Amino acid sequence: MNGSNSDFVPPQLRDLCEPLADGDNPFGDCVADDGNNTWSCRVKCSCGETDTFTIRMGNSSLDGWVSGKFGGDQRTDIQCEDCGLAIPFFDDGLHGYNAVVCDDRRLLPAEYRERNASLLKDFTCDCGNRTFSVFVLVRYDCGDLEGIPISQIGDSYGSFYAVARCSSCQKMESIADAETA
């Protein structure tokens, strides 16, 4: 793999993550060292909070959703409840190997971002709580990355998975799951 380990971080999450603590790893053995092909973290807002994120999600099953030719089927945005920082957390039409390295995002309709943003739904835990901790697992498994510009290395992952843990009852729920290559 070319690039430094710090290059292998999804760009939208750079500077917004902390390593998973011992005993606080929702992915279990999935984050075992496999030659630096797996990256994981707990999202940490720039204000320091880790368990006050609200989540808005949507996918192509919603009426009015705009998809691209090869992607754009799911989107998850998160926002820190304390400071208000909004993070475009994951969108399979904009993030990942096919969207960035293969440039499939150029095939998205012009109204893609704005129209789908208006369709996102608030995510609420079964207990009624709306704030969460967010954990991410990304696999850089697209083979030899030789020739990929350093500016695209962070998006050169083949799969993205994220879970949210309720800040109240601690229940875990999947909030993003996509093959991106």
How many DSSP E strands?
Answer: 9
Look at the structure and give the mean pLDDT.
91
- Which stretches of 5+ consecutive residues score pLDDT under 50? none
**Strand percentage:** 25-35%
Helix content: under 10%
**Spatial separation of the terminal alpha carbons:** 17 Å
Number of structural units classed as domains: 1
User: What is the gyration radius calculated from CA atoms?
Assistant: 16 Å
Tell me the strand order in the biggest sheet: 1-2-7-8-9
How would you describe this protein?
The protein is mainly beta. The chain has one domain. Helices cover 8% and strands 30% of the residues. The protein is built from three helices and nine strands. The chain has helices at 97-100, 112-117, 150-153; strands at 17-18, 38-43, 53-59, 74-80, 86-91, 121-122, 132-139, 159-166, 172-179. It has a five-stranded antiparallel beta sheet with strand order 1-2-7-8-9, with no helix packed on it. It has a four-stranded antiparallel beta sheet with strand order 5-4-3-6, with no helix packed on it. Strand 4 (74-80) and strand 5 form a beta hairpin. The longest helix is centred in the middle third of the chain and has 6 residues, at 112-117. The chain is globular. The protein starts with 16 loop residues before the first strand and ends with a strand.
